Structures are given as C-alpha cells and as structure tokens.
Write the structure tokens for this entry.
Amino acid sequence: MKEATKEITLDKYDQHILTLLQQQGRITNNELAEQIGLSPAACWRRVKALEESGVIRRFAALVEPSLVGQPLAALVMVTLVRHHIDNTAEFEQRIRQYPEVLQCYATTGNADFVLRVVIEDMAAYDKFLNEKLFTLNGISQVSSNFVLRSIKEETAIPIR
C-alpha cells in the first residue's frame, strides 16, 4: 500500500464512481456513465484521473483461497530485535517477495509487523516459517493466530 501524501478532493461524481467501481469492478464505462449521469467520455476522463492520482490503485479479481488450494489463513505477529532502519528495510523488502504473504502491516503495540498469510496446510506453513520467515535477520519473536472462520471481509473503502 502506498503512503498517502495528499488527500484528494472528491466531488459527488468521483464519489459515486468509486462506490460503483468498488461494487462492480467489471462494469463497462458506458454503464458507469449512465448510472452516475455523465457522458461516457467525461466518465472515462474521471476514472483515468482517479487512477493517475493514485486514488484507484488497481483493478483485481477477488479469489476464494480455499477453492484454489489455500484454505489455511494465519495472522502472524513479528517482532524485530532492533528498530533500526536497516533491519526494518531488509525485513520489508524480503517479505514483499513471499507470495503467501497477502498483507504486511507495520504496527504499534506488541508486534512490529502483522502479516496475513494464506497457505495449503500446516506442513506448508511450517516450511514457510523455517525456510523463509525464520531465515530473516533481526527477528526476535513470531506468533501465529490461525483463522477459524471469517466473520467479515470487505474490500470496499467507505466513500464519504
């Protein structure tokens, strides 16, 4: 996730575009324009401007992990030995290379980082820990919480 540098002012059309695109990412430009009350050309220009400004980061399909062989999910709390820029930079650079890590957040509290990991099974998770995570320099503690079931998974950002 990019760090926000400047908040963008959104008018009612931009807000409506963002709300609809988050609900229906495959909507055509003509359908989108019709629903928000703009011409297709004006709608396209607005969507393009939202992309270029970074408000829209990308378009993606949401895949059900359990249906593609990744039914196990874990929230992994990682604590580093030292909070030195070199340690954190190396950790962040390496963690970006691991496809099983879907999200990595630098956090406050007991852990320095929280990861969301999806993986095939416990044997694969053990391999991930031993061959990837535990090989990183500067880690002092790793704690894993496994997801039993998902209560809420939203991807849409409330647009106000």
User: Anything to note?
Assistant: Strands lie at 72-80, 101-106, 113-119, 139-146.
